[in-house]
TrEMBL record, chain A:
SUPFAM superfamilies in the cross-refs: Cytochrome c oxidase subunit I-like
Enzyme Commission code: 7.1.1.9
Taxonomy of the source species: Bacteria, Bacillati, Bacillota, Bacilli, Bacillales
Protein name listed in UniProt: Cytochrome c oxidase subunit 1
UniProt KW DNA damage keyword: no
From TrEMBL, chain B:
One GO CC term on file: plasma membrane
Keyword DNA damage: no
Name of this chain's protein: Cytochrome c oxidase subunit 4
Annotated TM spans: 27-48, 54-76, 88-109
NCBIfam families in UniProt: CoxD_Bacillus
InterPro entries from the UniProt entry: Cyt_c_oxidase_su4_bacillaceae (IPR014257), Cyt_c_oxidase_su4_prok (IPR005171)
Membrane-related topology note: Multi-pass membrane protein
Species in which this protein is naturally found: Thermolongibacillus altinsuensis
Length: 622, 110
């Protein structure tokens, strides 16, 4: 049953990935799918910037602009950033805590396929009558009036992919609580693992409100409900609250893993222990906690009243404190360190000033009275792109370069990596810095064009030029990936030479069982401790024995496919008679696959001791 | 002495276990009786004409909270060691749900 180092045909490889429950392969699936959606979202961004390059432009129509704008936001948040974050988590976290896999490998695969089908469903809207066009926030007062099926694609697609995210979050919570190696206490967990833990808790609490909101919207649009229609006794503000009770924690769901990635990179390439580790942990937890008490700062101008606005303004500003703690800890990690400016480290260093700008404008937005000026202007657009691109995308690019050898066994080319970095860094600031001023000068967000003579021409043109720099960076990155895959040399366990955490103790890529023997963790930066004591490998915590592995399964794919079919059917429920029946068939496929999963006893298989010893001799493993 | 072994097996110290179990049984019976009593009180509060809804509805909600606590702590053993994480996540969930409900009864324009 073991598949160690066996040559396979293309079909076998595809089948392997369709049925895999291995966290390392699921990480690659997340990376590929998230990467494709990232390119798609990037193309949409380019279309937006081309349209806004000059005044009175007619590159695309106003209606199509709304669709492109909506899909850019929705794709980037739900289908690019989140799965790429999950790619990093899957690739690294189980190995970092000294585990052989996540707690529920089957659910891990299910989470991926739900996300994937949800994303594909959402993007089908381009070909089936028009994409959603009410902004990524899809406020009910606007989206209920949308004439096409776009919003229905949004509502159903996000429900499916949201289910996947929720499953993933719960999986990582259980994994981190239950699967840590002996000696891996909470306060010895690497910072990225801590970030994953808090992020997963945020997912657990933030996604249910979104799901409730989406179900209300689905009822209103497809099944004759009226939760949001004031004319029928509903309340349109309920959607805004539900969306932002999810939406604000979502920002932290994205940025906390980014903080975790940078914490690893700063420590590794400064060759120093992370400064103020315990305060970093505390700050991460505090940001997660405060993240739930600030959602109404997105709604200052709704008219909640001065008391609510004041409370949410102060709570929002409070988040700057733990974030500041983190910024200083990173700076002090570098201070006195033996710094190496590798590609990931350059992203990390560039991240600090970029993110601080985003944070400062965040505090400005949090000032409720001033927000009446900033609201719905390009200032807000500039702000959130500084935190999400300057924080999350930088982290994902840094993490991709940093962990690429761990995921694929080959180093990305450093020269091309640095070219990517400089193009992206310059392009990013060129695009978004000027938007602060466009906003302050009065340019509203989400407009499809602007008139000449209002002083917006130069700023918008600069912004568009910057967007092309970022596109060029992405092209270089893709070229780098192709060149590395074709010509790259295989690397050993610790290709950066300064690895501190457990993932650098196993071969690149890790064998399917991760650790031949579960390691004994003797402190923070477990691998670094062993290296400093002159040891080659980790101290084992168990004798070498047979390893129990889960069987691959095609059912996660089928379960998700069923929901995809069901969503397609219910979408056309009101238009065609077959809609309902297709929906029911889809649900039956899902429930049938779940039934099979319940009744078929699957005990997994064992990799025998002899096979492991042979694989270890060939250089796999720890 | 069997009672002073450090084997970690809770069944070793039988006398202690027996005492503990008896104690726990006592608590469970008491909380069971209390829960039935509270349920009767709740029925009474609704049935009695003399109380207005402004009294009986919050009162029943209070009784429900007490019952949930009994259920969690005495029947689902949340008072025992090793339940810190379920407790943490339970209370966090309650907190988020409370905030949501609070927002919906205060700041939605109705």
């Amino acid at each position: 049953m073991s598949t160690l180092a066996r040559k396979k045909g293309v079909g076998a490889v595809i089948w392997d990935y369709l049925t895999t429950v291995d966290h390392k392969k699921i990480a690659i699936l997340y990376l590929i799918a998230g990467g494709i959606f990232f390119l798609l979202g990037g193309l949409e961004a380019l279309v937006i910037r081309i349209q806004l390059a000059v005044p009175n432009n007619d590159f695309i129509s106003a209606g199509f602009y709304n669709e492109v704008l909506t899909m850019h936001g929705t794709t980037m948040i739900f289908l690019a950033a989140m799965p790429l974050v999950f790619a990093m988590m899957n690739a690294v976290v189980p190995i970092q805590i000294g585990a052989r896999d996540v707690a529920f490998p089957f659910l891990n695969a299910l989470g991926f396929w739900l996300f994937f089908f949800g994303g594909v469903f959402l993007n089908l809207s381009w070909f089936l009558g028009g994409a959603p066009d009410a902004g990524w926030t899809s406020y009910a007062s606007l989206s209920l009036a949308s004439p096409t099926h776009g919003i229905d694609f949004y509502v159903l697609g996000l429900q499916i992919s949201g289910l996947g995210t929720l499953i993933g979050g719960i999986n990582f919570l259980v994994t981190i609580i239950n699967m840590r190696a002996p000696g891996m206490t909470y306060m010895r967990m690497p910072m990225f693992t801590w970030a994953t833990f808090v992020t997963s808790a945020l997912i657990l609490f933030a996604f249910p409100p979104l799901t409730v909101g989406l179900i209300f919207m689905m009822m209103d649009r497809l099944f004759g409900g009226n939760f949001f229609d004031p004319a029928l006794g509903g309340n349109t503000i309920i959607w805004e609250h539900l969306f932002w009770i999810f939406g604000h924690p979502e920002v932290y769901i994205l940025v906390l893993p980014a903080f975790g990635i940078f914490s690893e990179i700063f420590a590794t390439f400064s060759r120093k222990r992370l400064f103020g580790y315990s305060s970093m942990v505390f700050a991460t937890v505090l940001i997660g906690f405060l993240g739930f008490m600030v959602w109404a700062h997105h709604m200052f101008t709704v008219g909640l009243g001065p008391i609510a606005n004041a409370i949410f303004a102060v709570a929002t500003m409070a988040i700057a404190v733990p974030t500041g703690v983190k910024i200083f800890n990173w700076l002090f990690t570098m201070w006195g360190g033996n710094i190496r400016f590798t590609t990931p480290m350059m992203y990390a260093v560039a991240f600090i000033p970029s993110f601080v700008i985003g944070g400062v404008t965040g505090v400005m937005n949090a000032t409720a009275a001033a927000d009446y000026q900033y609201h719905d202007s390009y200032f807000v657009v500039a702000h959130f792109h500084y935190v999400i691109v300057g924080g999350v995308v930088f982290a994902l690019l840094a993490g991709a370069h940093y962990w690429w050898p761990k995921m694929f066994g080959k180093m990305l080319d450093e020269k091309l990596g640095k070219v990517t970095f400089w193009l992206f860094f310059i392009g990013f600031h060129l695009t978004f810095f000027i938007q602060h001023f466009l906003g302050l000068m009065g340019m509203p967000r989400r407009v499809f064009t602007f008139l000449p003579g209002q002083g917006f021409e130069t700023g918008n043109l600069i912004s568009t030029v910057g967007a092309f720099f970022m596109a060029a960076a992405t092209v270089v990155l893709l070229a780098n990936v192709v060149i590395t895959t074709v010509k790259g040399k295989r690397v050993g366990a610790d290709p950066w030479g300064d690895g501190r955490t457990l993932e650098w103790a196993v071969s690149s890529p890790a064998p399917e069982y991760n650790f031949a023997q579960i390691p004994l963790v003797r402190g923070l930066d477990a691998y670094w401790i062993e290296k400093m004591e002159g040891k080659k490998g980790l101290t084992p915590a168990e004798p070498l024995g047979d390893i129990h592995m889960p069987n691959p399964s095609f059912l996660p794919f089928v379960i998700s496919l069923g929901l995809f079919i069901a969503a397609l059917g219910f979408l056309y429920n009101q238009d065609y008679a077959w809609g309902k029946w297709v929906g029911i068939v889809g649900l039956l496929v899902t429930l049938g696959a779940m039934f099979l999963r319940s009744v078929i006893d699957d005990h997994g298989f064992h990799i025998h001791k002899e096979e492991i010893m042979e694989a270890e001799k060939k250089g796999a493993g720890a | 002495m069997a009672n002073h072994t450090n084997s970690g097996n809770p069944n070793v110290d039988l006398a202690y276990r027996r005492k503990k179990n008896a104690e726990e049984m006592k608590f469970q019976v008491i909380s069971f009786i209390l829960m039935i009593f509270l349920t009767i009180v709740a029925f009474f509060a609704v049935g009695y004409e003399g109380f207005s809804h402004w009294f009986s509805v919050p009162f029943i909600l209070l009784l429900a909270t007490v019952q949930v606590a009994f259920q969690l702590y005495y029947f689902m053993h949340m008072s025992h060691k090793g339940h810190e994480f379920p407790a943490l996540f339970l209370y966090s969930g309650v907190f988020v749900a409370f905030l949501t409900v609070l927002a919906f009864v205060t700041i939605v324009w109705v």
